[in-house]
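Progress against Task 2.4 (sequence-to-structure conversion) is shown through the following example record, which the project officer requested during the mid-term review.
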Amino acid sequence: MLRIAFFVSSHGFGHAARACAVMEELIRTEPSLKIDIYSQTPAAFFHGSLSAPVNVFSCATDVGLIQKTPFEADLPASADQIAAFLDFDSETLRSQANFLRKRRTALVISDISPLGIMVAHTAGLKSVLIENFTWDWIYADFTAEYPRFATLAENMALIFSRADLHIKTQPVCDNEGPHDLLVGPLARRPRRDRAEVRADLGVPESHALVMLTQGGIASPTPFTTRLLNLPQVSFIVTGAQETKRVRNLLLLKNDASRYLPDELAACDVIVCKVGYSTLAEAWQAGIPVLAINRPGWRESATLAQFVSTFPGSAMIDEQRYLSGDWLQEQLPVLLKKPRKPAPDADAGLRRTAAAVLQLLEP
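Structure tokens generated for the chain above:
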């Protein structure tokens, strides 16, 4: 029996979604594989995303950035917490390494968690880093305004360099960074038929279906009245205070157990911030996207370029999104665009799983 440990960043749900896509491919390829997950992402997210039982251990695997809103981070508070986190206590590392040994763990995979690589190094286990950006690359962008991020970035880069296998996933943000394998976007697959999902949601056949999502972070929707004034369009709005239906709106409270790839693939348009997992899942399904740019975030330029490759997709800024003007201007155009699923969308997952399993060979 082989056991793999996944250490997954809890900064939003995007890293967990990508890690789950990899786990599901590993389970499909090697059904006897056992998986332990270390993360502060709710266990329900993993159980709801995976077809096989997994063990989830609540564990702070990184800090990432401290979010004020989906579009704004508290950088001074982030720096304080990152510095404290990277001051790894040797006894804690040994204890976690011993726990992995007791579990007979064969390999550690990290979706940008520095802790996973440090624990693997301490335990004498091989480790895999999966990323389209790493935290050191993000932190380096803040050094002019907050010089202490320079040291944090250097320390983080050193940790990531210890990975035995470094897999970059497109769209890649740091094109100059080292890697061993470059793969296509990694996305969770839909499980249910589009018509079945729409019927379960109570969407009339004559309605278009549009999802508004900010990647697991609650977000204000000041233009709700304008949504209600489009009765021929059904809207799924995530990040609501409570789950309820209001005429043509299905408001969803962030529920980690809900498998959103099904609802996403049933939509005609996705409106979202530029975040990896939502964009990767929309790319896979070939759905037009209206993406909200985040110019203060270093990865945004790469993700915006990725959106530009989607047939009929468009970008707006946060102010325009919150105004709701896009409902009359961009949305009617996007709703006329056909879906064009990505060819061989699973290729990246197959190559990632093959590379991981090769490391487990005697």
